[in-house]
Each structure stands twice: as structure tokens, then as C-alpha cells.
Design goal:
Structural class: alpha+beta
Low-confidence stretches: 1-13, 36-43
Strand order of the largest sheet: 3-4-2-1-14-13
Order of helices and strands: HEHEHEEEEEHEHEHEEEEE
Number of strands: 14
Mean pLDDT: 89
Number of helices: 6
Helix content: 10-25%
Length: 296
């Protein structure tokens, strides 16, 4: 089974429901967040924290409660950057009201699409663009943002690549577009891509990523507890009787390579959203990925 069926159903949440939920959840970062518990003496010259998550926004079942779960995790981890997939317009409006300390960048306006949240106090936004996938059948694209963090230039990219095993060719075509994004970035720019890729390892091998690009999960030692981001052996949101485990959600990094520019490297990765909510559902049918980077 695939991670994101086009036939999801469920009761939609009204705009008033979203706004009530937003009003009930103040924009604050708990004192026990991973970011807040760093020691003041830690080196702070070039650090970045990121979450990427397919939030299953197109599925209406318990969506408001699951959105509350997303709020909990974002407040807990307090990331600098958030990549989101399967957003819908009402979900975006909820997040904009809920997270006023972040800038929301949207990868679409209708149906479902991707988005980014950028922490205003840490990430200076420069510009963004939406790169079309010309042959997609699912209205997928690549959302790109140019930003500056601690004086360093970053190119942030997120996408939701074509779904289903049968669409392997189109998915690889889309990965080629992502690959060009890595290759075209100036050598003083750090490039970070994250999203629901739906990729199989064989597809990545066929496309071939530049030698300067690393798969963050692989770079950190292929830790087994972070391998599967779509796992029906544990996650019951889709009520699928068969078992399926895939590493659909991935993060790729191309550090800046110009001499004198800090070289960013991953130093931690964890899956988030592993706890079942009080409503009996998980925040999403995907686990999110929390990742931190620092200068080598």
C-alpha cells in the first residue's frame, strides 16, 4: 500500500473549528523543548533544526485533533524550519494563526500541497519559487526558498513526489528536478531538501545524486529506529490490514563547498509523532523527522 491514496475520505473540519482550535493553543515554545534545553556554552555559530512531516491533511478523520498533535510537537521541538506535505487551505489558515512567530510559505492554493514554516527570529527569508513537475498527474511540484541563517545562505527545498509503485518513472523524473536544484545552487549556499519522496532505494540509485549530496539518515549511520517513516505495523491511521514499512520521508543535504564558508553537517535525527493521541489516532499516517545540523 502507498502512503497517500487519492481516495481519502472523512468529515471535513469547518473554518470555525480550525479557528477555535487555534485560539485554544497559544504560540509558545515550552521550556523543556530540545532547543530550549541547550546549554548557553554550546557553540552557536551555525546551527539549524528542521522537521519534515506529511501531516495527512487531506484525510478528514479526527483532523482537528491531529492538528492539535502537530502543534504539540512543533512547540516541543521548536524547529527553525518546518517542511509540510498534504496541507489543505483550511489547515494553512489554522497554522498561520497558530504560529505567528513563523512565516508560512505555500506551495499551492487548491487541493492539497506543500508548505514551509520559517522561524522569523532565526531565518531571514529572501525569496521563494514553485518549480513545476511538467508530467505530474497529481499536481506535485518543488517548493524552493532562499534564506539566510546566521549570515549563511541556504536553499531550502521540499516536495511530495508522485505516489504509488506504478508511478516510479514519474517519481524519478521529479527526483531529477530536485537533483538539478542541488547542482545549480552556488557553491557558497547550503542546500537542504526534505519531504515525502515515496522513493525506493533502487530509484535513487538509477537517478544518481551528486557526490556532494548526502542522505542524512545514511550519513548518521542508518539507525534502525529512524528507518521507516510509513509503517503500518505500528501506525493504524489508515486501517490497513497488510503490513508495509517504507522510508518514504527523507532529508538530503548538500553543504556549501566554497572555502571559508561553514560546512553544515547533520548531528541528530529522530522520528516524531510516535505517540497515539487521545482521539485514538496518530498525528499523521507518517512519522515526522526531526533533524539538527551544525558546522563541522
Amino acid at each position: 500500500m502507498e502512503s497517500d491514496s487519492e481516495t481519502h475520505s472523512g468529515e471535513d473540519t469547518t473554518p470555525d473549528d480550525w479557528m477555535e482550535l487555534a485560539d485554544a493553543s497559544p504560540d509558545a515554545s515550552p521550556a523543556n523543548s530540545p532547543a530550549a534545553t541547550r546549554k548557553p556554552s554550546e557553540k552557536e555559530d551555525f546551527k539549524l533544526s528542521l522537521i519534515t512531516w506529511n501531516v495527512e491533511g487531506i484525510y478528514g478523520e479526527k483532523r482537528s485533533e491531529r492538528a492539535r498533535g502537530l502543534v504539540k510537537y512543533l512547540n516541543l521541538y521548536n524547529p527553525d524550519v518546518v517542511f509540510l506535505q498534504e496541507l489543505i487551505p483550511s489547515y494553512v489558515q489554522f497554522l498561520k494563526k497558530r504560529f505567528v512567530s513563523y512565516l508560512m510559505i505555500e506551495g499551492g492554493e487548491k487541493g492539497y500541497f506543500t508548505g514551509m514554516l520559517l522561524k522569523k527570529s532565526r531565518v531571514k527569508f529572501v525569496e521563494s519559487e514553485i518549480v513545476a513537475y511538467r508530467t505530474t498527474q497529481m499536481n506535485r511540484n518543488l517548493l524552493v526558498a532562499q534564506v539566510i541563517v546566521n549570515g549563511q545562505k541556504l536553499c531550502l527545498m521540499t516536495s511530495h513526489l508522485e505516489s504509488f509503485k506504478a508511478n516510479s518513472k514519474e517519481r524519478m523524473n521529479q527526483l531529477h528536478v530536485v537533483k538539478r536544484g542541488f547542482k545549480r545552487a552556488p557553491d557558497d549556499v547550503t542546500v537542504v531538501f526534505g519531504g515525502d519522496t515515496n522513493l525506493r532505494d533502487a530509484e535513487v540509485t538509477k537517478v544518481g545524486l551528486p557526490a556532494t549530496v548526502c542522505d542524512v539518515w545514511e550519513r548518521l549511520g542508518k539507525q534502525e529506529h529512524c528507518r521507516y517513516t510509513w509503517d503500518t505495523t505500528t501506525n493504524t491511521n489508515q486501517n490497513i490490514s497488510t503490513t508495509a514499512r517504507f522510508r518514504f520521508d527523507r532529508i538530503y543535504l548538500r553543504p556549501a563547498i566554497r572555502r571559508g564558508v561553514p560546512r553544515l553537517a547533520p548531528d541528530h535525527m529522530a522520528l516524531v509523532g510516535l505517540e497515539k493521541l487521545d482521539c485514538g489516532r496518530y498525528t499523521s499516517d507518517h512519522w515526522g523527522i526531526y533533524c539538527t545540523f551544525s558546522a563541522e
